Amino acid sequence: MKQKLLFAVAALGFLISVVAAWVYGIQPSPEPPVFAPASNPYARAVYAIGIVESDQPAGSNINVYPDVSGAVTQLFVHDGDHVKRGDVLLTLDDSVQRATAAQLAAQADAAQALLDALLAQPRRETLEVAQAQVLAAAASLKMAQDQFDKQQRAFSLEPKAVSRDILDNAANGVNVARANLEVVTRQLRLTQAGAWVYDVRNQQKQAVALRRAADASAALLERYTLRAPTDGMVLALNAATGAYLSPQGVYSTYAQGNQPAVVLGTHPDQLAVRCYVDEILISRLPDPHALKASMFIRGTPLKAALQFMRIQPYVTPKIQLSDQRTERVDVRVLPVIFRVVPQPGMRLYPGQIVDVYIAAS
Q1: Which of 321, 293, 263, 282 is closest to 51 using CA atoms?
Q2: Do 259 and 314 sit in the same domain of this protein?
Q3: 145 and 189 share a domain?
Q4: Which of 14, 99, 194, 326 has the least CB density, counted as fewest CB within 10 Å?
Q5: What is the DSSP string of 273-335?
Q6: Domain boundary at 176, 194, 212, which?
Q7: Rounded CA separation 111/208 (Å)
Q8: Once rounded to an integer, what is the mean pLDDT over residues 30-41?
């Protein structure tokens, strides 16, 4: 009985092993690919990696940085907004600069007021005072002269009637009155002449210098308002209210580096692709006016035709997108820019990496 049981267990194990070998030996049919991989659509072609960017006249997106530093006080745009040239993007804290500009403007106004006062001389009231002083001095001189004449006649009639000391004092009084009249007369001419030309010229220079300083301060105050340099669309707004912004940009917590405050581009329907052709393949490119190319979007079955725009005639070192500058070989590439021909249902954004095939000769 025990032998029969062992024989049954062995037979069952053999049967299970046969079935398992048959099951695991079945080769499953491969799944079809989700999309067709990028392939060369031309008989001969040059492959290049491209990056999508806005169709700008300069061929790249516009990174906007402020000219001054400060904390962001208010944002006026958001990602995806369309802006016109001169529209306000954001403002920075300008309290200190605003006070400085007001102080310099007040100093310039004070200097101009002093210049106006110099140019307005002689003042009518001052001139009237000087004229009155001349009249008073003339009257004093006449009185002193009359007094001296009386003393002189009395002395002539009777020398003992008037002492020599009184007569000398009367003569001295005439001289003092005459000298006083001369002083006030000269003072009247000085008042009538107005401000000295050198004083006016010096005050003019000071007024101009202070006014220019005030204008420069006001212009610097305007820099605390960041405006759009051109028409376009806000591709990225990296600043936030309260964040510190400098001419080097704003610090990004995630990227661990500085980024531009705002990135401007064109409408999504107006995109370009910048391709980097390896220097050893440049000779295989045909005439620039006959360039044809196709673009394949990675991870999708979508592709689009490209329209040649221009070649940037400067071979530059290859840029690693990982931002690691550790290449031991100096690889250089030629930038070639194409315009993307829009396709129905195609969603493309600046910054995407695409595969590009350029028809070669």
Answers
A1: 321
A2: no
A3: yes
A4: 326
A5: EEEEEEGGGGGG---GGG--EEEEETTSS-EEEEEEEEE-S--EEPPPTT-----SS--EEEE
A6: 194
A7: 9
A8: 69
Lookup result for tokens 């403002």: 91
How confident is residue 58, by pLDDT bands cut at 50, 70 and 90? low
Distance between CA atoms of residues 46 and 278, nearest Å:
9
Q: How many CB atoms lie within 10 A of CB 19?
A: 10
In Å, what is the CA distance from 329 to each residue of 200, 203, 282, 317, 325?
70, 66, 18, 10, 11
% pLDDT > 70, the chain: 87
| Higher per-residue confidence, 316 vs 110 | 110
Give 3-state DSSP helix, strand, coil % of the chain, rounded to 5. Answer: 40, 25, 35
**Residue 349: which CATH number?**
2.40.30.170
Residues 259, 276, single domain; the answer is no
In this structure, is the dihedral angle defined by the CA atoms of residues 131, 132, 136 and 139, taken in order, positive or negative?
positive
Q: SS3 of 48, please?
A: strand
